Amino acid sequence: MPKRILSGAVVSDANDKTVTVLVERRITHPVLKKTIRRSKKYRAHDENNHFKTGDSVRIRECAPMSKSKRWEVVIDA
Hints:
The protein has strands at residues 5-12, 18-28, 35-45, 56-61, 69-73. It is mainly beta. The chain has one domain: CATH 2.40.50.140. Strand 2 (18-28) and strand 3 form a beta hairpin. The radius of gyration is 14 Å and the shape is globular. It starts with a strand and ends with a strand. The mean pLDDT is 95. One of the primary rRNA binding proteins, it binds specifically to the 5'-end of 16S ribosomal RNA. Belongs to the universal ribosomal protein uS17 family.
């Protein structure tokens, strides 16, 4: 099964080797047929503490690293 990749913005980098990423998606409301925004925060592993608040990042699913971390930051070269 392929791993999901999501894009978002870093909203917190206070913890060691962890960033909190806010991912927004747009959906159409089932009744109103209006486009609305839904957002969710994910905790992602950042091995070298490279990313800071405000950075745009891509995160990928991975095996659980802690109670709340199931994602890792993708380093694009």
